[in-house]
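Box 3.1. Reading complex inputs
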Amino acid sequence: MSNIFLLVPVASILALVFAWIFFKSLMKNSEGTDRMKEIAQYVREGAMAYLKRQYKVVIIVFVVLFILLTIMAYFGVQNPFVPIAFLTGGFFSGLCGFLGMKTATFASARTAHGASQSLNKGLQVAFRSGAVMGLVVVGFALLDIAAWYLLLSKVIFTPEHMANGLHFLGLQFVHEGTTETQKLVEITTTMLTFGMGASTQALFARVGGGIYTKAADVGADLVGKVEAGIPEDDPRNPATIADNVGDNVGDVAGMGADLYESYAGSILATAALGAALPAVALAGTGIDPIKAVTAPMIVAAIGIVLSIIGIFMVRTKESATQKTLLRALFIGTFGSSVLILLALVGLAFMGWITWGVFWAVVIGLAAGVIIGQATEYYTSDEYKPTKGIAHQAQQGPATTIIDGIAVGMNSTWIPVVTIVLGIMGAFWAAGGAQHFAMGVYGIGFAAVGMLSTLGITLATDAFGPIADNAGGNAEMSELPPEVRERTDALDMLGNTTAATGKGFAIGSAALTAMALISAYMEEVRLWFGKIAKGGEGFVAKGQYVFYNDVAPAVEEGIKAVKISAASVKDFSAAYDITLFNPLFLGGLFLGSMMAFLFSAMTMKAVGRAAGAMVDEVRRQFREIKGILEGKATPEYAKCVEISTKGAQREMLVPSLVAIIVPVIVGASMGVAGVIGLLAGGLTAGFTLAVFMNNAGGAWDNAKKFIEKGNYGGKGSEAHKAGVVGDTVGDPFKDTSGPSLNILIKLMTMVSVVMAGLTVTLSLL
Amino acid sequence: MSNIFLLVPVASILALVFAWIFFKSLMKNSEGTDRMKEIAQYVREGAMAYLKRQYKVVIIVFVVLFILLTIMAYFGVQNPFVPIAFLTGGFFSGLCGFLGMKTATFASARTAHGASQSLNKGLQVAFRSGAVMGLVVVGFALLDIAAWYLLLSKVIFTPEHMANGLHFLGLQFVHEGTTETQKLVEITTTMLTFGMGASTQALFARVGGGIYTKAADVGADLVGKVEAGIPEDDPRNPATIADNVGDNVGDVAGMGADLYESYAGSILATAALGAALPAVALAGTGIDPIKAVTAPMIVAAIGIVLSIIGIFMVRTKESATQKTLLRALFIGTFGSSVLILLALVGLAFMGWITWGVFWAVVIGLAAGVIIGQATEYYTSDEYKPTKGIAHQAQQGPATTIIDGIAVGMNSTWIPVVTIVLGIMGAFWAAGGAQHFAMGVYGIGFAAVGMLSTLGITLATDAFGPIADNAGGNAEMSELPPEVRERTDALDMLGNTTAATGKGFAIGSAALTAMALISAYMEEVRLWFGKIAKGGEGFVAKGQYVFYNDVAPAVEEGIKAVKISAASVKDFSAAYDITLFNPLFLGGLFLGSMMAFLFSAMTMKAVGRAAGAMVDEVRRQFREIKGILEGKATPEYAKCVEISTKGAQREMLVPSLVAIIVPVIVGASMGVAGVIGLLAGGLTAGFTLAVFMNNAGGAWDNAKKFIEKGNYGGKGSEAHKAGVVGDTVGDPFKDTSGPSLNILIKLMTMVSVVMAGLTVTLSLL
């Protein structure tokens, strides 16, 4: 192992150290007045109550899956490490959510207080708090990866174990006679399955968080704003705390878990693809298999260090306008990107990556920027699409909806074309025309490249809900108007970064899923083991040996499964992933359907959860005397409780569907069906997600554009139509759209973990 | 040629004869009072004015494409028949549209008059008029196919021409030394490209008709009903005639052209797949290649004869309820299906089709019924989904929209699963596990089977708009209320058949596209011609010969194109349609995007065209004195003109995009890219179309459910929300959704026609 690999654990620890420093310096700031502290305390309690309940559900799911995975490991259709690794992936992702949200809820009042001093101070507090989330995510993700890589390569796959095998508790961890090449393949494909823990955690965080935040939002708006006519964030509204909690739950914890998964998934998938590179592809490049496997981790490590530097670049002056604020953030992210590229030039010169891979990383970084900018174009009220929706709002809600849907559907073209050019560009840049495997490895690196700036990108994302909450805190604490003006400026900035952040999240999800699907085939190839020509039988991973004639194997004390000559034919059929294999085509259809079905389920879930919230807010207005006069305190906790319960109840069915369908397809339609399912889910899911995110974002900003005084301003017919658009857009952009990121990745991850079972079933 | 083939021309002529008989007997009925005649005349003139203008535009497009195809034929990248065949396909489709619409516009007043005598009389007139459309479509489509097949097999590919070649006007029609096997492949792949004419015609009919009908509808509703407060179909509304014209233009002509294309496409694609069956697959089945090629035409011919019998089965009693009416239609369609199956049993016993193919047809027929029933479940107000939307309407327009979208997305699962099971079932039933080509041939037969009842199915579809128009006529002519009650009963029946008809149209479009995509590969294989190993060069179809070294060919006076060894490698790359070819994957993404982009464009188009209509209706109300008191006649023709112009103007861009994108993808991304594009367009487009159709249908019926007196009935807040849902749903279900059928098929058809160019470009 080269010394440069040490950068991986070092950078991940560095990220955690800086996260700690930023957190400490955050805590030194005052939370302001007693009222501010009180509000912040309510939100904090609500957020923690939610997290506690969510983790309880998640733990049950984890325990069930852990048992299932263990049973599979016992029967040899699963690697024995996977159950434990599954837990660590989930644990660290959950820990990030806890720490990020804790920080965010500590930061809102402090940001409001900072804004009461100066705009720059407010920006610094909010942004550095967001950076805690960003650094915690990349830090723990890379630390987990580094730890497992070191454990597996140094402790488990020792030369001695590789020669003699390693058994423990009746399970075979290392097969006798494992070669050096096999070792890397075994290690990386095993590590790949760790991502399953992060995926499961992300599923619940994104879907649950998405349902929570919208249920609270709709409840607060529909009864508070529309029926009772009190302003946003008014303390008389019982759902207002739940609404503020929702921002943290959905946009901090949900987004963080989503990107944690993409980050870990892209690195692990690329490492697995690196291990699968044939010698002929590496010949003459100066890259050895170990370099190919560790390079994505090293690129990620470099990205962490330079993201930290980028975070320090973000500062602004008091007289800052929206543009200069945006510029401050842009300098930070763009600065990190440039520094990363410079560092990669060095890495290429040192012979750790090929120049082709370098360009693949450049393409990934560029694709992230382009998708982000396109998202801004389609959803910002400074451009034609959103202005057009506001214009249509004059003719009533129906035309507002139609135009918003058209804008959203139309907006899919730039992201799709970017991803297509990105995939093809990365493939060819890395040398896919000469060696197919190199091209696929390049696609993986495009994903790693896009996510290399995650430390700072996530900081700008998490900044949004913190600023939003600071505004809420300022409003509820009745701070002077100039404070609210400053927090509003930060909040608007947050809306823009949230939109570009959503584009970034779905773009990286697509590339990560792409890398994972490629890695899935490696996993399948591994599980097939050595196929003996003519149906003589083959040795699968783990304890099972597949033979045409099981008797000799049984005599030797090996668990053996009979396979037929027909099964061996199925092996090539399983690899027939052409369109004309009806299993593949059927899978494609099902994947496309899954995207729509999952969206329908999450949207319905919001509707039901919001309905319960509406009833509760109405009840409080009715039953608690003096609440509207501000004489009685509403029961905030009741609303938090309802949103929490609703989210937990409603997230289960869609989540289970996302986990179970790939298993069923794998068992019934084999590898070709699974690949079709994943490809259909990826392509249709990506397009659908972009449509929903951007339609939702555009409706939101069209409404705000009208509220600025256009087309009659607040209270006009156009405004009413705009509110309808915004309400429809809420579950689009904050629940269903982002949840599709998870669906795309999770279905792939489940398939990877279930590859052993799928392959075994297809051979029996 | 066997005598049984004679059934094909005979059945097609029989269909036309019965269409003529039905038309004549229709014309014998009275159009009723002078007022009724006047109204009918307005609608007829409007419809013909529209058709005239549309055909003018279409003729220009056809001339341009004809010239392009001729140039391609001259340069040897296109078969010389294609330009002429393209024209005949377009001509017959256009003729069907003209005749069908002419009949429908003659039928509305006669149906109203018939309904003034008895319900059964009204049903008979409307249904038999619809049958004219159904029989004209299947008759001309099959006649065109039979004529070309006889021309090519009897006149062009004679033994003498096959031995010596056939040249004419400097173009090579038959290559020297063509074998019997090659003959059938050449004939069927050439015929396949005839469908391009039908596709182009269908594109303009569906997209233009869809825009027309919704622009008129929205204009009539928004200003007339909402602003001026006058009822539906009121003669004081200037847009009311345009609205009635729209029903004919969109639902008769548009639907007819759509299904004409599916019908011809499925038969031609299956014939091409039959010609490509390898001898080993046919061995022992008793089927020879000629039987394999003509069997789909014979099945279609049988379907025609038995559809005619089915049409005679449709009759009802005066005391008929909605249920008995529906039962009358069901007996007709179901009766035909059963008779077709019985006839196919005979065909299988006679050894014209295998039993596997028989089961594939059964699967196709069953899939059509299931998708139709699922559509009814999700869009009829007798079931939970639509009732749920009406319930949500109480909370305002936003929840109505969200719930409708969720219902639409949710409704995709049954049709998708049905299509998946249908594709896989037909594949395996036909013997795909043993011989891949047989399985694909079976999928083609599933499409042919689904469409075999088209004669009667289309009659029930066209019935809807005729009944709708009859109602309009009765209203405007102020007939007694019991007449309106009877036409309302027929209209409601029409709404149900329209919904199931939409499901049938998209289901058959999916299967047809599937068969076409498979046939596309045959087209590509043919164009590649005989690849010489090691880059020696190969002979492509037409005059060009591709050689590594062009000199010897040039000496022999043959136009020759140099190809490189790298190009020969591309040949296999072009066939690499696995997910891991980034070209294929990129194509998949682009196909999914095309579905969304096309929907956005058609939706925007409706918005703009409707805007112009709204302005015009407002102008007439303002400027024509006494219009609202019924003292002055509105300028109906002006509104018809505006809808017509708007539709023509707006249909061009989306239409051209649908035609050009496959060409660009073919030129830049080769065969793999094209296949990806088609697969992505098919799977995402199908899901999106089902979503849009069903969401639109459910909103429509939810509104009607409220109007029946539920949740406050007409004028309530729930009703207002229901109207918003219905308005959003209109372009969903009548423009964008149905237009996707065309997109799916047209992109495939364009690719088939351009296969020669794509292959040539990929080899240069």
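In summary: Residues 3-763 of chain B form one domain.
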